[in-house]
Amino acid sequence: MSLDSKIPNGPISDKWTNYKDHINLVNPANKRNIDIIVVGTGLAGGSAAATLAELGYNVKAFCFQDSPRRAHSIAAQGGINAAKNYQGDGDSTFRLFYDTVKGGDYRAREANVHRLAEVSANIIDQCVAQGVPLAREYGGLLDNRSFGGTLVSRTFYAKGQTGQQLLLGAYSAMNRQIGRGKIKMHNRHEMLDLVIVNGKARGIIARNLVTGEIERHSAHAVVIASGGYGNVFFLSTNAMGSNATAAWKIHKKGAFFANPCYTQIHPTCIPVSGDHQSKLTLMSESLRNDGRIWVPKSLEDAKAIREGKKKPTDLSEEERDYYLERRYPSFGNLVPRDVASRAAKERCDAGYGVNKTGEAVYLDFAAAIERYGKEQAYIKGLDADDKKLIIKLGTDVVANKYGNLFQMYEKIVDENPYVTPMMIYPAVHYTMGGTWVDYNLMTTIPGCFSIGESNFSDHGANRLGASALMQGLADGYFVLPYTIGDYLAPDIKTGKISTDLPEFVEAENNVREQLNKFINNNGKHSVDHFHKKLGKIMWDKVGMARNAEGLNEAIHEIAELREEFYRDVKVPGSIDSFNQELEKAMRVADFLELGELFAKDALHRNESCGGHFREEYQTEEGEAMRDDENFAYVAAWEYKGKPSEAVLHKEPLVYENIKLVQRSYK
Ligand SMILES: Cc1cc2nc3c(=O)[nH]c(=O)nc-3n(C[C@H](O)[C@H](O)[C@H](O)COP(=O)(O)OP(=O)(O)OC[C@H]3O[C@@H](n4cnc5c(N)ncnc54)[C@H](O)[C@@H]3O)c2cc1C
């Protein structure tokens, strides 16, 4: 099968407009005859469900939480990008497009990214109209801050709760349609398989997580908006329930899985404190606007700090190495995440780490507190030489900007970050890989779409901060509602899809069989036991830096672990009741397959790009070295019975509007 990305012809800035002008439309009366299933009601699925129902389609929406409000999207702290140029600092659609392609290390599809930049401004208008309380400046205008990988301020935010506020907006829009009966909301339901009839996605099999009942649901199209798969690493900043099952099940039914090895390791997370942990906490990238990252200049000081003999505040400016400012003078602390993460690892590997395990660097606000304090003293006509007053005034400004993040840090680490610099270390955060989709956001299964973090998205090999919310909402509010109409136009006379068709019976039987297998297994170890082991292999051998030897070992070890899992996992309870161990078993089974494909993808990509760092391919200064001649393509894997048998298809990436150069942030 050859991949057809269906990119419209014409100049890049006209493609989306021309496309919309020429697609098939479904008239309002006919939309009432069409059912659409949306799996996932985070920002991507929530915005899609609301918009599709508003257009008149009958939507059946599913999420495994007890409410769409609890989707992982709620955790997003820092903000959402849009090319509004409110700051007048040189932003434009082209610059957002350029920054995103460059940030992704030239491994994204140009046409999609340009469309994303074009619709970005509409998202802000839509959310403001919904009443989302985005931060404003004193004069009432929407405020912006900066995120990594850019030289402009284009990030809109709502304190450190941007995802929550945007999700409440999407949820309100959904609720209007739930109230009108146009969205039938199925909370606490997990999709466990896709049903394909005559080559088209026509429904799903879902388990009611409260009663255990297995249900069949039909529709004319299925939209997957199930989020990312970062939890394949066990420890990540993702919500505990985030999983790959929906995306993986459609992969096994024919949807190609693209670039699984592109994972983002976020530089500013609270370091791992021990084996007991099941979750890592992000400290928003917005903190890099004001925080300066450093480690001690000398190994002796680093050792003394680790042993508790010295405090960071004992070290003078000259004794500190602000390594990002030193290595990347033009972007400084605001280099993209992959660059900042690797630089932290490099310093810690060289022995400069500052916590007990040697895996932490400082994020220090002292300079910002002083700078803001002096500014406030000047504004208020107070004594700018009064050190105590300056610190008080500056602390108030920093608290206003990031107060909830500082409070969260203090609660977890039990140290006051206004006084002692925060300790941070990179952690798994986001997955750029996912189900392959064409320009219409349709997978290789006709009628099965994928949006938000679950698709392989617009971020290439590295996503810039604040661009995931932008992409999820662009897909849901502004892209899918057009593209799905074009696909559904010939379906207006099809009528209801029966759930009695043999394809539904077969899919349901398969799901029952898998569930029963776990319950009857009677092994010795919990699901978490295997998940943790998988996470360790992934972090050690497929994590921030990879090499061929480690990847070959990982592939072998994951396959063995999977066999052990099926032999020895113990899942208590029954299938026809509330059973969280059973839910986890199904999810970890999929992670155990996805992990292997992930490593296989990383092994085949003999280059370093974005979040994919192969130790064999780096410059003398330790920067990622791309190989555009041989690897400027999307790797889309076709399932053939086992991850080891997966077949690679390549979608060549053509750059007509941006010149391919080795990325530099110096
Ligand atoms: C801590 C943190 C902070 C972040 N901050 C930012 C930020 O400031 N800016 C930014 O742009 N990005 C940020 N991101 C990334 C961003 O939050 C996510 O990429 C984005 O929210 C994903 O949205 P989504 O709708 O695709 O998926 P999710 O929000 O993960 O939603 C997935 C949905 O799918 C449902 N689901 C999954 N599987 C199934 C199944 N089998 N059956 C039924 N339902 C299913 C879930 O119930 C849920 O409703 C952050 C990420 C993290 C981890």
Notes on the protein architecture:
The protein is an alpha+beta fold and 666 residues long. 39% of the residues lie in helices and 14% in strands. It has helices at 15-22, 28-31, 43-55, 93-103, 110-130, 162-179, 245-252, 299-306, 323-327, 337-352, 366-380, 387-413, 468-488, 502-519, 527-542, 548-568, 580-604, 628-631; strands at 35-39, 58-62, 80-81, 155-156, 183-186, 189-197, 200-208, 214-218, 221-224, 257-258, 263-269, 292-296, 320-321, 361-364, 422-431, 434-435, 448-450, 633-638, 647-652. The strands form 5 sheets. Strands 5-2-1-9-17 form a 5-stranded parallel β-sheet, sandwiched between helices. It has a 5-stranded antiparallel β-sheet with strand order 11-15-14-12-13. The chain has a 4-stranded antiparallel β-sheet with strand order 16-10-18-19. Helix 15 (527-542) runs parallel beside helix 17 (580-604). Flavin-adenine dinucleotide (FAD) binds at residues 39-45, 62-65, 71-73, 75-80, 162-163, 189-191, 225-228, 237-238, 242-243, 245-246, 282, 429-430, 452-454, 466-469, 472.
Q: Helical amount among residues, as a percent range?
A: 25-40%
Spatial shape: globular
User: What's the end-to-end separation, in Å?
Assistant: 42 Å
Mean pLDDT: 95
Rg measurement, Å: 25 Å
Query: What structural category arises from helix and sheet content?
Result: alpha+beta
Major β-sheet profile:
5 strands, parallel
Task: Return residue spans where pLDDT drops below 50 for at least 5 consecutive residues.
Answer: none
Individual helix count: 18
Strand segment tally: 19
Order of neighbouring strands in the sheet with most strands: 5-2-1-9-17
Q: Strand content of the residues, in percent?
A: 5-15%
The kinds of small molecule bound in this structure are:
flavin-adenine dinucleotide
